[in-house]
Specification:
Length: 217
């Protein structure tokens, strides 16, 4: 799945050239799909590696050729920052930093039914155990670091400053809350709308306060 958001990381890189490599990629994707569905329906702790491999129609030995542990099925070892940096670089200079992050994320949301379903299953799987929620939190921190780098580059800096880190942390929180709300509704609410609305709320909160009219007695 091609998306800048870590909570949508449920597939591997694009299929490479060569029949053998394509077969390996399909096997990996089958294992990811099987594990995600089982974790979401039965819970992470109640799902065995044997159940995952049975559903993917491979042996347990094959599983360990691709993943060192059960939880590794759902998470990349590291987030790919290139897509995020590229998406941020494409945003117009007329946008402020929060608007740039918002539009970069909106441009890469999944819209096809199959991908949306996989993202929802991923969220359900992560919520099934604190072990996965902890791993997910680590990815969110990494995502926030990438956002800070993207903001710094956008402002002509080689390294993130306090402003970059603050904007990144704020945006990351907004994105997380939108995804949580979306998952709570089982995808019935529109993720694009949820993201836009929450960024708008931040803008309203940060807007200069208007003077209150004097009390009239």
């Amino acid at each position: 799945m091609e998306c800048v958001l870590p909570w949508a990381s449920v597939s591997g890189p694009p299929a490479p050239d060569g029949r053998r490599e394509r077969k390996k990629t399909r096997t990996r994707d089958d294992l990811v799909a099987a594990a995600t569905e089982l974790f979401a329906s039965n819970g992470y702790d109640a799902t065995s590696i044997e159940e995952i491999t049975d559903r993917a129609d491979v042996s347990p030995r094959t599983f360990f050729r691709y993943f060192a542990a059960k939880e590794d099925v759902l998470f990349p070892e590291h987030l790919d920052a290139e897509r995020l940096l590229s998406a941020m670089a494409d945003q117009p200079s007329s946008s402020n930093d929060l608007e740039a992050i918002r539009d970069a994320c909106l441009a890469q949301l999944p819209y096809d039914d199959a991908t949306v379903r996989r993202v929802l299953l991923l969220k359900k799987a992560i919520r099934s155990t604190p072990a996965l929620e902890g791993r997910d939190l680590a990815l969110q921190h990494e995502f926030c670091d990438h956002l800070a780098v993207a903001v710094a580059l956008r402002n002509g800096l080689e390294q993130p400053d306090d402003h970059s880190h603050m904007v990144a942390a704020l945006a990351q929180a907004v994105i997380r809350l939108a995804f949580e709300r979306w998952a709570d509704t089982d995808g019935r609410e529109d993720l694009d709308t949820l993201l836009r609305h929450r960024f708008e709320l931040v803008g309203q909160i940060l807007a200069p306060a208007r003077p209150r009219p004097p009390n009239r007695r």
